[in-house]
């Protein structure tokens, strides 16, 4: 990956981005344990499919 004004870098984890996704935005974040690239992707609706769960699901939000 090449970042303007900084040069080229080795990037791990690009396998998490789907093949048909378009990269919309990327932010370089510096943490004490290293640097991270937060990437926002656009995935067309026809390429996105959810599998139905098939049973009831409960969500506990911990609200009193």
SSE layout and pairing:
Layout: E1 2-3, E2 7-8, E3 22-31, E4 34-42
Antiparallel strand pairs: 1-2, 3-4
Question: Any overview of this molecule?
Answer:
The chain is mainly β. The protein has a domain at 2-45. 0% of the residues lie in helices and 36% in strands. The chain has no helices and four strands. It has strands at 2-3, 7-8, 22-31, 34-42. A hairpin with a 2-residue loop joins β3 (22-31) and β4. The radius of gyration is 18 Å and the shape is flat. The mean pLDDT is 82. This is Transposase.
* Main sheet strand line-up: 1-2
Q: Give me the Rg, rounded.
A: 18 Å
Q: Averaged pLDDT, please? A: 82
Question: By helix and strand content, what is the structural category?
Answer: mainly beta
Largest sheet report: 2 strands, antiparallel
Order of helical and strand elements: EEEE
Portion of residues within helices: under 10%
Percent range for β-strand residues: 35-45%
Shape: flat
- Number of DSSP helical runs: 0
List segments where confidence is low: pLDDT < 50 over at least 5 consecutive residues: none
Number of strands: 4
User: What's the N-to-C terminus distance?
Assistant: 47 Å
């Amino acid at each position: 990956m090449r970042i303007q004004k900084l040069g080229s870098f080795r990037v791990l984890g690009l396998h998490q981005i789907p093949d048909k996704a378009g990269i919309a935005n990327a932010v370089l974040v510096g943490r004490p344990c290293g640097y991270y690239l937060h990437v926002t992707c656009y995935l067309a609706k026809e390429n996105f499919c959810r599998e139905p769960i098939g049973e009831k699901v409960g969500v506990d939000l911990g609200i009193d």
